[in-house]
């Protein structure tokens, strides 16, 4: 029987499996796929901004303060329901801005986090913008519905809130998972030829 390891995403000790990613093999959580031995210890600095969306204003402010203190981003935009997030997200894209990360609570008034994420992807397509990574925020471990949403909305991941009174641990876990998602997304972006480059190359054929 495999030894259990602590998963920052799930917030508990979990069974693990080895996932072959081509260039490397990662020891990952069997539930969410998060790499237990995070392969990217370097800190990502989100220069273009981060959205934090949750109906708990106190929790949003705590995460905001933690991220600013640890220099994950100098620009953080706050929203307290899915509807106001979509409105602000459209405003950002209309202004020519790109967001590095969106943290979305799943259970919210007006529009749920999953529905807001689906709408967000449609909006990005309409504006011909690259996909901003999404970090779903759940009060429980990821179920089939959330895993399907993560796959559809990729790049995306999730973090379990865990015990409500343990906010310091939550902020630390969220920072670790968000940082890993940002670094992974940036690595994939750098390795994937842009559409403009592909078109240039094809014109030479």
UniProtKB/TrEMBL annotation:
Coiled coil: none annotated. The modification 4-aspartylphosphate is found at residue 105. Residues 49-176 form the Response regulatory domain. Residues 186-205 are annotated as: Disordered. The keyword Phosphoprotein applies. InterPro entries: CheY-like_superfamily, Sig_transdc_resp-reg_receiver. This is Response regulatory domain-containing protein. It comes from Candidatus Fischerbacteria bacterium RBG_13_37_8.
């Amino acid at each position: 029987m495999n030894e259990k390891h602590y998963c920052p995403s799930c917030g508990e000790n979990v069974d693990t499996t080895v996932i072959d990613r081509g260039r490397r093999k990662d020891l990952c959580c069997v539930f969410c796929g998060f790499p237990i031995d995070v392969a990217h210890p370097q800190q990502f600095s989100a220069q273009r901004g981060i959205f934090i969306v949750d109906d708990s204003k106190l929790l949003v402010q705590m995460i905001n303060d933690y991220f600013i203190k640890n220099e994950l981003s100098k620009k953080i935009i706050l929203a307290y329901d899915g509807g106001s997030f979509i409105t602000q997200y459209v405003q950002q894209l209309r202004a020519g801005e790109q967001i590095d990360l969106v943290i979305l609570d799943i259970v919210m008034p007006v529009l749920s986090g999953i529905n807001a994420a689906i709408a967000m992807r449609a909006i990005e397509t309409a504006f011909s913008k690259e996909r901003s990574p999404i970090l779903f925020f759940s009060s429980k471990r990821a179920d089939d519905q959330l895993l399907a949403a993560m796959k559809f909305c990729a790049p995306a991941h999730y973090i379990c809130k865990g015990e409500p009174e343990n906010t310091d641990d939550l902020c630390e876990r969220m920072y670790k998972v968000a940082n890993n998602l940002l670094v992974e997304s940036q690595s994939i972006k750098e390795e994937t030829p842009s559409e403009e480059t592909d078109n240039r190359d094809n014109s030479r054929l």
